[in-house]
Amino acid sequence: MVLPLLRTRTMWTRNTASVWKRTATTAVLSSNFDTTNSVLWGTAAIAATVAISAMNDENSKTKCSGIAAVVGSGSYDARHFLLEGLDILKARGCDSAGLVTVSEDHTMNITKYGSGDAALSPEQVIALVRQHSHAAKGPVGMAHTRWATHGARSDQNAHPIRSGKIAVVHNGVLHNARVLRKQLQGYGHVFETETDTEVMAKLIDYYYQKLQKQSESSSTHLLKAATEKALRKCDGTWGLVVMCQDVPDELVVAAHGSPLVIGMTSTGGAEVSSSTRSQPVTYVASEINAFRRFTQTFVDLKDGEVGVIQASGPILESWSSLRVEALNDSQQDDDFQANTIPEPYPDWTLKEIYEQPEAIGRALGFGGRLSGTGRILLGGMDAHRDQWKHVKHLILSGVSSSLHAARYGELLMKQIAALNTVRALDAVDTDYHDFPHDVPAHTMGCCVVSESGERKEALRVSDLALTRMGVPCMSVTNSVGSTLARTTKVGVYCHAGRERSAVSTKSFVSEVTSLALLALWFRQTKEEENASIKSRLATLDVEALKESLLRLPMAFGMALKTHEQCKELAAALEFTDTCFVLGKGFAEPVAREGAFKFQELASLHAEGLSASSFKHASLALVEPPIMYRQRLKTRMVQGKRKKTERMKTTKKKNVAGTPVVLILLDDQHRQSVRNTGMEIKSRGGQVIVITDKPELAAGLDDNPIVIPSNGPLTALGAVVPLQLLAYELAKVRGINPDSPRHMSKEL
């Protein structure tokens, strides 16, 4: 089967040539490479070319926080690493940022800013820190991106927080902060911020001063002891780094429920001058990405552990060279880049939307994971085949976009009968009782889906599966070497490349692609273990899924051509205050993801629902044009003058009713979904159709958004116009799509 290709100008690049080369190599190496597969691989290669061309065409147009800390010596300037760390960690959630350094003459300099009432973007906040950090020169320092949980987004509440000679940066939440605050106020301490972190800073300062009076020990031992005493009083979670003016060459670190990773190297990386290149430097961060450019050697700080960080390395109670790890070849993120500019795109969000065809190719290993013979090759799963071949009941768990990907994966696994039972659950609520208790333990498995591999909900589920349930747990993650990947030690990397935007786009698609491969792997293993279960129906579904995967990069490249149509539609929806996104079958999780993007990017109230269940209650919320226009007139957007002028134009255009995006595909649900659309239309609602067959939109939408048909993955292609529509709606509303308000990637 050969798909009609887009007539487009092909711009040959190194990436294009690489895709062709890798695809061709796979074909040659397969001794059983038949004619059908040859056509499919040719299609896959052309798909990558078309996708890259689509990207080049666009080019021509033109509760979570992050920690980065470093201990160097001599003339090493910590600011370079700390400022780069702020840029890398801002996607975790950033409404405030700051850094502190201490020099060898015991001078402590703090520079920090909050977004405040002006709601500055993360880029603007970090730019302020960069601009005013010239005095903060020193070999030891800490930096922090804050996502407000206690207190306003003010300069005062930004981290680092100082108390006397102590400065701290903290990830997590202190549950008994209110009680401790009252106790410390009783001791005469005056609080200057609303944060729970200041409670920890003053508590450490309190014990440090107390120990200084009682002991003749060195300041190093006193700082660690004071930190330990303070943490014994604390109830909550923390990834904590502590600095003291009296100890200008060390930091104290502690972790409890919030990960910290220590990176070790004998050089300071690119910023170290030749005269200091031999001097050792030690890094601390909440995720490996912060120091990946400088070292690949690291050690995890264990839960409940307190340690001292020196330039020569960490001093930990249970220190052992066996704990030191290095990212191996399979864990290297070859797309990791330290640059912080999305050129030639105007922002990271659009860049990452347009990178999706290539991201899919990377998830497929550019053919390496789906061989010419049709065999699924997943190195991580193949290495643990003896353990996972017995699994018949699987729990998929994820949060937000990863949950939507898991639900799509659940449907794929059910369609090809990959396992006996599959359930996709929200990691926020996944509990002991969600695991089957009436089946042998060795037949159960858990798969945690997480883009970052650092979300506390995802880590909690993996710990629940491995520790409490005693069942094998794998991960599908985009972040190589993340806490989740290191905890599960088995799974599938998405290889989508780092996402800089606060919203997930290409990682969602890569997760679904990886889960599709995982579904095929389980089905393949199931048939190899018991050949008698092979059925003609399942075989047809399996082959259809494989073909869809091979065509997926091309399908996304074609879907990107809907951008201009989405841009025009977004302009018409500028003043809308609510919308619905409906789908059924494979389209339902995509509808939920689309609604999620409207909420995240455009700050628009949106609900993603099953097209069948919509008429049971939500249909009552659909308003005809007159009622809908009346409410639009009262909506203040960007000033009265603009509103008045815009509403005059809107009135002339005869605004439709409540907008409902309908994913109407040529599948077994088409009649049911179409009936729902007709009911919405009859009540005056505005139906916006996304379809792979324009005739289905007759009577519903005169100008439907058309995406290519692609078997069981057709619905996945609908996410592209949904992303583009949400993106363009954010732009016309004056919202920075890279940093929408109140948005954090890793709560």
TrEMBL record:
Show where the SIS domain sits: 384-528, 569-740
Q: What is this protein called?
A: glutamine--fructose-6-phosphate transaminase (isomerizing)
Annotated coiled-coil segments of the chain:
none
Annotated GO MF terms? carbohydrate derivative binding; glutamine-fructose-6-phosphate transaminase (isomerizing) activity
Write down a Pfam family by its short name: SIS
Q: What is the lineage of its organism?
A: Eukaryota, Sar, Stramenopiles, Ochrophyta, Bacillariophyta
EC number from the UniProt entry: 2.6.1.16
Q: Which SUPFAM superfamilies match?
A: N-terminal nucleophile aminohydrolases (Ntn hydrolases), SIS domain
List the source organism.
Fistulifera solaris (Oleaginous diatom)
Reply yes or no: does the keyword Ligase apply. no
Reaction catalysis annotation: D-fructose 6-phosphate + L-glutamine = D-glucosamine 6-phosphate + L-glutamate
Lineage top rank: taxon: Eukaryota
Q: Where are the transmembrane segments?
A: none
Alphabetical GO biological process terms: fructose 6-phosphate metabolic process; protein N-linked glycosylation; UDP-N-acetylglucosamine metabolic process
Query: Which residue ranges does the record assign to the Glutamine amidotransferase type-2 domain?
Result: 64-312
User: Which keywords appear in this protein's UniProt record, sorted alphabetically?
Assistant: Aminotransferase, Glutamine amidotransferase, Repeat, Transferase
